[in-house]
Amino acid sequence: MGRVHVGTCSWADRTMIEAWYPPDVTTPAARLRYYASRFDTVEADAPFYAIPDRRVVENWAKRTPPGFVFHVKAFGMMTQHAVDERALHPELREYPHEVERGRVKRPSQEMVDLAFDLFLEAIEPLEEAGKLGGILMQFPPFFTALDEAMLEENFAYLDYARGRLGKRRMLVEFRHPSWVDDSRVRDTLKFLGDRDMTYVAVDAPQFPTRTTMPPLVAATTSVGYVRLHGRNRDTYFARNVSAADRFDYRYTADELEEWAPKVRQLAEGTDVTYVMFNNCKYDYAPRNARELAEILGPEMVSPVVPPTGDEQLGLGL
Predict the structure, then answer these.
(1) In this predicted model, what pLDDT tens digit does every residue of 144-160 receive, in sequence order?
(2) Are the C-beta atoms of 77 and 119 separated by less than 8 Å?
(3) Whole-prediction pTM value?
(4) Domains of the chain, earliest start first
(5) 80: alpha, beta or left? (left if phi > 0; alpha if psi -120 to 50)
């Protein structure tokens, strides 16, 4: 049975900063160091919105201890999302592109190719430091497997993305349940497994219309991955709300207990499993992450012992 690492899908959400960090932990450097003194893994979600500056990523590597693992959410253009034109990397601006309501739509293949290249160059410091876990490819709800033509087209894109990422760990999160309905699930999981793509299990609100992914747990590679989005049915599909508001939910002890056997099942079939909380409103994510770690116990989750002394928090960099 592989070890389990528990963390959150952000360390710098505004409401999380206000609710979770001590009052004297006030700088980005101090916050990341404080986080890394409590957890040994995290997702970097900011790169989804804009390809980060390489120097920023270098600092992520410098400010975390050996063995700390970052999973990086792929830039939206890499997963067929419309992206904010204002956030485009300068080199991407040189390519012709359509803009609708400030969002880049239908970029050329050359533009997408370059987005992959620029993204991978930016996160290279994490690779060099041995701190890159996986690249989270979260596809939009319209990326479906509803018919054979759509399935073939989207399988082809997954193959394309696999080729662009090379040997890096590719974490695939679907957001439409057609990928795992009774008629598709076996083929979907086989496709991912044959190409060394990790299926990302999710917890999300469930609706009678079955418009969200069910909480299916499956191991398609030696790495297991779970993302818990909360169960706020009122905000999950809301428009013009922040990510924190969309995932405004605190799991109860009973709900976390529901996930414990699923995580154990996943760990039995993998070398390592990551469980990441995306309910980053207030202190909900770090609180729930710690609660789940306690439920799973030290035999599965290695405890991260908080350091003593301000020097351990890295208040200087």
Answers:
(1) 999 999 999 999 999 99
(2) no
(3) 0.94
(4) 3-303 (3.20.20.410)
(5) left
